[in-house]
Amino acid sequence: MNPIRTTCPYCGVGCGVLVSRAGDGWNVRGDPDHPANFGRLCSKGAALGETLDLDERLLHPEIAGMRATWDAALDTVAERFAAVIAEHGHDAVAFYVSGQLLTEDYYVANKLMKGFIGSGNIDTNSRLCMSSAVAGHKRAFGTDTVPGCYEDLEIADLLVLVGSNAAWTHPVAYQRIVAAKKARPDMRIVAIDPRRTATCDIADLHLALKPGSDAWLFKGLLNHLKREDALDWAYIEAHVAGFGAALPAVSGYSIPGVAASCGLDEADVAEFYRLFAATAKTVTVFSQGINQSSSGVDKVNAILNVHLACGRIGLPGATPFSITGQPNAMGGREVGGLANQLAAHMEFTPEGLDRVGRFWNAPNLARQPGLKAVDLFQAVAAGKIKALWIMATNPAVSLPEADRVVEALRACPFVVVSDVVANTDTSVHAHVKLPAAAWGEKDGTVTNSERRISRQRPFLDLPGEARPDWWIVNEVAKRMGYSAGFGHAGPAEIFAEHAALSAFENGGTRDFDLGGLLAPPFEKGGRGGDLATVPPAQSSEKSPPAHLLQRGECFSLAAYDTLAPFQWPVTSSGGTARMFSDGRYFTPDGRARMLPVMPRPPLHAPDARHPFTLNSGRIRDQWHTMTRTGKTARLLAHIDEPYLEIHPHDAHRLGLKDGALARLANDNGEMLARVRESREQQVGSVFAPIHWSGRYSGRGRVGALVSAVTDPLSGQPEFKQTPVAVAAYPAAWHGFVLAREELASAGAAEGGYWAKVRGKSCWRHELAGDEPPAEYIEKLRTRLDRPGDWIAMQDGAASRHRGALIRDGRLLAVYFLEREADRLPPRHWLESLFERDALSDAERHALLLGRPPQDAPDCGRIVCACFGVGEQTLAEAIAAGAASVEALGIKLSAGTNCGSCIPELKRLLRAQRPAAG
Ligand code: SF4
Q: What are the φ and ψ backbone dihedral angles of 286, each rounded to 5 degrees?
């Protein structure tokens, strides 16, 4: 069987992957021909083949927790939505959708809500990651257009990474930058981030600015460029409006003033400004660190202002570049998945409404934008929304004030959840659950951060009664009486309709245009998708009539099947790598807009009760709420628990020990997390990851702390600057249980701490509790009640309790409890004992000591997830003479596959061999 060419379902880099059979499983490798990654994959993409099992899958529809037929479930959804609309109006219902959906799924969901139900109440979890970039683009360019492409990151002479830990969040894009820097050491990289992240590893200059102060820095940059006469006056004259207001607005922003506002050294600010002024080929990459702010849109426009003033837009190696979080955040933007947009990048204007309404033949088109994510769930809480359909997302974990979201879900009269996972923090509150297709089963398209549309192709049969999201939406639509608009036979027809709408009465007036695809070579199949074959005769004005396009008659199934990755817009000469190279924008006068933005500090400042600024974000090897990445032990080997990164100075002041537990709290909620001291944090700031849900931890959701304050224009929440109090968590005991099976609620005491870690051959349960240890052990033994011999030791005075259950020489479970967390032994060797059929005498003797017999190695915490290379093994190799990343690669293979661990390898080298570092 030829490999299936498809796309990674995780981040916005949108890497192409090849999937082929390997014995009973699947081999997933990077697609060398995909222009996003040219064969590379990060640790998450490389582990995709390990996440395909059906454990925890939702395989059948459910109503009120009971298995139901599809007919019953779909009828129930349609009837309840129709009843709410009839009684309370169309704005009493809402959809909350996701950047995990394929474009085709997204398209029909938006069409149903905005075109036929007649409400704007469909919003997406992409609101949480990039809606400020959308709003900033629209203010500056007239459209939500990312001007550049990934090649620009490689050919820039100066790359500015602001609010982006690309090394962890967009690893393959980062690897492309690393390779470019290696090939051209003169390339300069500036990282702007309050934290010294793994991304800073390749930076020539790191500006560790005060959290939230980015707009001051970029306003100062514009002022400096003006003073240094480094602006492109000809470009401004020909292509930019608003300069007259934007320039005076930066006049007071001197280098000393900016340095003081941003908490930076004047010399560092001056060096950044000097580099920017002197380097025509400059790319500024920005991401969640900019967007997730109550003034995110202004920050975006502060960046765009600078690029516009220098004419550095859409040119090779010279552009601003917003990099998106999710695999199909861009696709959602294209179909109108945001509550304040219509489909195909059209707006809620009279013209947009008229055009979309005619194209869809929509009986009841929404006339005004709907509620954005945070407002939408507040409306649920207030009882205004009485029927809510959540697709492919987990807002009970990911939205701000997550505990209030849970309360809102509990109170909502009718909640529908379509998901691949049987039980999530959200779906446990659903009245109807609908089993959706997962990656590997889905068929459709996604758009990555550089506007590149790629196919996701199925290679697995749909399991159980799972169905594609587009099918589910269409079936509900038909049952609501809208058969005419939702009769698509498959995703190809939906894509054709989407493409046709993009071209409908376009004529070059709108940025998003796929009209060039609807052309003979595609119609016939041919090489379908090779844009070199798109004939020049095709133009938007000559697109076939809408009624043909709507039926997908101008885009064949064969063409869709073989569609190769391409970048929109598709013009007569094919796809488009860069936008605005000609200086023409989609504004009424064709000019871009500079704006006199006014920097604002985070809405909620730290105070005496909540003195720390909490930053939240992703980690290297996990994705969203871990529903997929949590399935593979390999990806949990790097970071396995919710953690709090804190500067040693703060940790010391608070009496927090590295590896102990901390409690973070504010008026919204609380979170428990494992302490990690790090000088990469600023004093007064802390970081916690977003991934842990109720599935893998007790009290580990960072969303419970984040305030529901949003940018007034974009509605994007301020995830990066939340005031919190931090204190040691005073547990009576700390411990862990390793067992062959997963223990329900980890056997933890009510109200205590627990985190579950899937290991290679066992489950690890990290615990802390308040009840007497003996009581907990009794409960645990009852839970593990099975034939076997317990061996145990107890030192009451030291509060030390250890035990193991063994049957026929095989280890079934082991527990260790101590008063202090740092007295617990390392876990790796103990976990490895579960891989044995029988323990040796030496292992049995060493078992309750918690450390290997002298001749057995302990590899330590895993750093290289691809090859399972641990910290201890690396330390020994470095001590034995390995003095570089390359040497570690030769000796241990570490860092030689996906490369995601290279920044950490460098850090270990620096720590152990400061001279080499
Ligand atoms: Fe997937 Fe990693 Fe590529 Fe992102 S960088 S698309 S997670 S392989």
A: -130, 150
**Region 179-207 average pLDDT:** 97
CA of 146 to the centre of ligand 1 (A): 19
Helix, coil or strand: residue 700 = coil
In Å, the largest CA–CA distance within the chain is 87
How does pLDDT run across 451-490, given as a tens digit for each residue?
A: 999 999 999 999 999 999 999 999 999 999 999 999 999 9
Whole-angstrom distance, CA of residue 20 vs CA of residue 30: 11
Report the separation in Å between the CA atom of 406 and the middle of ligand 1, taken as the mean of its atom positions. 30
Cα of 704 vs centre of ligand 1, distance in Å, is: 28
Asked if pLDDT for residue 798 goes beyond 90, the answer is no
Beta bridge partners of 790: 805
Burial classification of residue 712, based on how many CB atoms lie within 10 Å of its CB (0-12 exposed, 13-18 middle, 19 or more buried): exposed
Q: What average pLDDT does this structure show over 74-101?
A: 97
* Under 8 Å between Cβ of 345 and 351: no
Q: How far is the CA of 170 from the centre of ligand 1 (A)?
A: 7
> Locate tokens 């459209």: which residue?
143
Pocket test for ligand 1, best of 42, 164, 323, 629 (most atoms within 8 A of CB): 42
Ligand 1 geometric centre to CA of 857 (Å): 33
- Residue 747 — very low, low, confident or very high, per pLDDT cuts 50/70/90? low
DSSP 594-622: ---------SS---SSS-EEEEEE--TT-
- Which residue in the block uniquely carries the two structure tokens 């409400």? 119
- CA of 71 from ligand 1 middle (Å) equals 37
Closest Cα to atom 2, ligand 1: which residue?
42
Q: Average pLDDT for residues 221-239, to the nearest whole number? A: 98
Ligand 1 site-directed mutation target among 15, 48, 100, 324, most atoms within 8 Å of CB: 15
Query: Do 376 and 370 meet the contact criterion of CB atoms below 8 Å apart?
Result: yes
Which atom of ligand 1 is closest in space to residue 30's alpha carbon? 8
Read off the pLDDT of each residue in 150-159 and give the average, rounded to a whole number. Answer: 98
Residues with CB under 6 A from ligand 1: 8, 10-11, 13-15, 37, 41-42, 44-45, 170-172
> What is the rounded distance in angstroms from the CA atom of residue 370 to the CA atom of residue 388?
13
pLDDT tens, position by position, 592-601: 999 999 999 9
Which residues, in sequence order, are CB contacts of 248 under 8 Å at separation 6+?
Answer: 596
- Residues near 835 by Cβ (< 8 Å), separated by ≥ 6? 760, 761
DSSP state of 518: S
Beta-bridge partner residues of 870: 862
At residue 37, the 3 state secondary structure works out as coil
What is the rounded CA–CA span in Å between residue 315 and residue 155? Answer: 11
Distance CA 440, CA 52 (A): 8
Check the CA dihedral 424-430-433-439 and report its sign: negative
Model-wide pTM > 0.70 = yes
Q: Model confidence over 490-520: pLDDT tens digits?
A: 999 999 999 999 999 998 999 999 988 875 4
> How far from 200 is each of 191, 192, 321, CA to CA, in Å?
6, 9, 18
Residue among 246, 285, 301 nearest 135 (CA): 301
Between CA 403 and CA 677 the distance in angstroms is 28
Residue with tokens 């460098």: 906
Work out the pLDDT band at 865, boundaries 50, 70, 90: confident
CA distances 667 to 601, 725, 785, 852, Å, are 20, 10, 42, 46
Q: Is 390 helix (H, G, I), strand (E, B) or coil?
A: strand
Do the strands 414-419 and 432-435 form a parallel or antiparallel pair, or are they unpaired?
parallel
